Amino acid sequence: MAIAKAERLMNLALCLLGTRRPLSKRELRASIEAYLEAGSDDSFNRMFERDKDDLRELGLVIETVENLDGEVGYLARRDSNRLPPITLDAEEAAALGLAAKVWQQARLAGAASGALQKLRAAGLPEDVDPYEAHSALEPRIPVHEAAFEPLMLALRDRRPVLFEYRKASAAHPEPRHVEPWALECWRGHWYLAGWDRDRGAERVFRLSRITGRVRSRGTGFTVPVPDVVTVRETVAGWAGEIADRSALIRLRSGAGYPLRAKATAVRELGDGWDELEIPYGHGLDAWLVEFGPDVVVLEPTELRADVVDRLRAVAKG
Q1: What CA–CA distance (Å, rounded) separates 127 from 153?
Q2: DSSP 176-237
Q3: Residue-wise pLDDT tens digits, 195-219
Q4: Which of 124-133, 180-189, 195-204 is predicted most confidently?
Q5: How far are the Cα atoms of 7, 16, 179 from residue 74, in angstroms, in the given order?
């Protein structure tokens, strides 16, 4: 069985690498004997999808292309699957080993180990052990969100995705159709940056606010991916950490410690309330709403109006 599958994968890889145009499932089934022997269309489809995923896990870059008639085809361009000679010194190998250690507690552990094995086959110095170098350092990046893995695969394959997303100020999630650009961890949370097709603009999404399953939708991006995607700067700006002015709020005593940590001035008002001066940047209104009745915005008036509007939207459900 293992030999038969290996032969089937090899034949599929040769077909995809040898074609100059995308091949449909129908054409691939007619070209590979093992697919012809599949008992039904469902059996063939399951076998083909597993084989395609296995080839991608092995490192083959397979493109999915839709023609004018809406038929989906597949090919593996030679220029996308050809790497220049790899030469690594001891320091570079140690850096890769350290990066691989990050994922040892995540589902990417197998992929990280496999990547290092491929580098050894490509000429990684035999006297260098990437896992042992700098063994005093044990980096860890937590990956608890179920959305992380499907989003990572969609990033790799350049596939748009659809998911339900609940904003901080909303009572219910709403669908978002996104072309994913980058995933980045910032202050213990994972964020996705991409092009929101419905809003026609770049957006950043916190993975912990994605509800339900992440689903692939269609093929190909409609907007070019930027050379640099500034996820952290965008999140910091939306969180009010990039601010050029101040806001004045009343805060209930004993509440809102994150706000108190950012305050530039605090004054006790009595009757269980304090007055705080805090940095005011884009997205501060969404953050203040999270503290509900413990916060009252005094000024500026536009911030107060934004917070009131968000609270009314939540109250309406």
Answers
A1: 33
A2: EEEEEEEEEEETTEEEEEEEETTTTEEEEEEGGGEEEEEEE-SSS-SSPPPS---HHHHHHH
A3: 999 889 888 898 888 998 999 877 7
A4: 195-204
A5: 19, 7, 20
CB hemisphere CA count around 249 (13 angstroms): 30
Beta-strand runs (E) in the chain: 23-24, 63-66, 72-75, 161-165, 174-186, 189-196, 201-206, 210-216, 245-252, 265-270, 273-280, 295-299
Read off the pLDDT band of 137 (50, 70, 90): very low
CB 64 within 8 A of CB 80: no
Q: Are strands 265-270 and 72-75 parallel, antiparallel or unpaired?
A: unpaired
Helical axes 109-121 vs 90-102, angle rounded to 10°: 160
Q: Name the DSSP class of 268.
A: E
CA–CA distances in Å: residue 209 to residues 78, 166, 256, 288 = 39, 5, 21, 17
For residue 84, say if its preceding peptide bond is cis, omega within 30 degrees of 0. no
